[in-house]
């Protein structure tokens, strides 16, 4: 199931845009911006195919982490189509940046850096770089779009809008690139939350098909994206004291700027505590947590699902489709903030400060 597919039955303004991009001297960076279900991916697919048919080299940067076309999900991905395609889901990514969630409101910095880094890589090989973005255009999404435009400095920023709803955003981004406004097509269809969830389910399932369990030595590969493992390990007396005070089973803990513990909580026992002094992570929140294998350049080799951590031996068991030789290239295992099963069922999102 895909929300967008290639079509040449488009409004006249799309053809005008295609002609204009074809006549520019590359590399030309084009950022597509619009609200949810405004047709950004459909437009990208149309432009990419039209440019390829005219003999231009095209790169696609897919940063719509909530409705990802290029696998894996919860990353920003770069692909170089070698011919016409009907949907971005047909493309294989050559580089990825790990975000770790399908709801990036708390990760606007990472989203901006990801688009900048992959756009720079793309511009080295492509005549036109097409950048798809999320439909998140208000609140933190407004700032995220501004940061992306400020870093990337796109040659053209295309806004898809219905009735001028993006005027404020357009004004904010105008200093960073030439703006073009297109009307949302009358054929654009809104998708329900259930439909979007089903699209994501299929993407997760497809990515994790054929996965195997690998053991990761956390003394060799640095755990990142979390306060866990930072500081010195707790001594037995500290573990016993925290366990006694809160009636927790403390499975692991560290002392840095504050105490951080992984715990299992007895039913019916809950006590308040100062988060400036103590951070407590429920052990079951780590189960099926998305993690990214990060290489020495900060890019994502692929993702996996955390199945178990042996804290005493510093070993993590991760389900991933990556081959062992790819896993061995990782220098960091970065913790995400979405929990999901390999069947595609999403178990929930974690807040950034939860880990």
Automatic annotation (TrEMBL):
<comment type="function">
    <text>Polynucleotide kinase that can phosphorylate the 5'-hydroxyl groups of both single-stranded RNA (ssRNA) and single-stranded DNA (ssDNA). Exhibits a strong preference for ssRNA.</text>
</comment>
<dbReference type="GO" id="GO:0005524">
    <property type="term" value="F:ATP binding"/>
</dbReference>
<feature type="domain" description="Clp1 P-loop">
    <location>
        <begin position="34"/>
        <end position="210"/>
    </location>
</feature>
<keyword id="KW-0418">Kinase</keyword>
<dbReference type="GO" id="GO:0051734">
    <property type="term" value="F:ATP-dependent polynucleotide 5'-hydroxyl-kinase activity"/>
</dbReference>
<dbReference type="InterPro" id="IPR045116">
    <property type="entry name" value="Clp1/Grc3"/>
</dbReference>
<keyword id="KW-0067">ATP-binding</keyword>
<dbReference type="GO" id="GO:0006396">
    <property type="term" value="P:RNA processing"/>
</dbReference>
<protein>
    <recommendedName>
        <fullName>polynucleotide 5'-hydroxyl-kinase</fullName>
        <ecNumber>2.7.1.78</ecNumber>
    </recommendedName>
</protein>
<keyword id="KW-0547">Nucleotide-binding</keyword>
<dbReference type="InterPro" id="IPR032319">
    <property type="entry name" value="CLP1_P"/>
</dbReference>
<dbReference type="Pfam" id="PF16575">
    <property type="entry name" value="CLP1_P"/>
</dbReference>
<dbReference type="InterPro" id="IPR027417">
    <property type="entry name" value="P-loop_NTPase"/>
</dbReference>
<keyword id="KW-0808">Transferase</keyword>
């Amino acid at each position: 199931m895909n929300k967008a597919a290639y079509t040449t039955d488009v409004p006249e303004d799309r053809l005008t845009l295609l002609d204009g991009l074809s006549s520019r001297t590359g590399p030309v960076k084009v950022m597509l911006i619009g609200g949810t279900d405004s047709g950004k991916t459909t437009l990208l697919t149309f432009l990419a195919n039209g440019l390829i048919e005219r003999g231009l080299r095209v790169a696609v940067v897919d940063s719509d982490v909530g409705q990802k076309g290029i696998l894996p999900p919860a990353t920003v991905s770069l692909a170089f189509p070698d011919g016409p395609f009907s949907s971005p889901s047909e493309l294989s990514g050559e580089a990825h940046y790990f975000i770790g969630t399908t709801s990036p409101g708390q990760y606007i910095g990472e989203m901006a850096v990801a688009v900048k880094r992959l756009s720079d890589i793309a511009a080295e090989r492509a005549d036109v770089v097409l950048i798809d973005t999320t439909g998140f255009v208000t609140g933190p999404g407004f700032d995220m779009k501004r940061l992306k435009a400020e870093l990337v400095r796109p040659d053209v920023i295309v806004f898809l809008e219905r009735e001028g709803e993006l005027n404020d955003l357009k004004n904010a981004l105008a200093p960073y690139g030439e703006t073009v406004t297109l009307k949302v097509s009358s054929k654009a269809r809104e998708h329900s939350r259930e439909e979007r969830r089903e699209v994501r389910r299929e993407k997760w399932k497809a990515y994790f098909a054929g996965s195997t369990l690998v053991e990761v030595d956390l003394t060799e590969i640095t755990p990142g994206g979390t306060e866990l493992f930072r500081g010195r390990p707790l001594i037995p007396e500290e573990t016993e004291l925290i366990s006694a005070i809160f009636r927790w089973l403390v499975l692991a803990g560290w002392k840095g700027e504050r105490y951080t513990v992984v715990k299992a909580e007895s039913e019916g026992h809950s006590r308040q505590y100062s988060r400036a002094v103590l951070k407590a992570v429920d052990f079951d929140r780590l189960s099926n947590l998305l993690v990214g294998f990060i290489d020495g350049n900060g890019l994502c080799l692929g993702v996996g699902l955390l199945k178990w951590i042996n804290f005493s031996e510093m070993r993590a068991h991760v389900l991933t489709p990556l081959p062992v030789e790819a896993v061995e290239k990782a220098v960091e295992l970065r913790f995400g903030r979405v929990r999901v099963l390999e069947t595609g069922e999403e178990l929930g999102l974690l807040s950034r400060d939860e880990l």
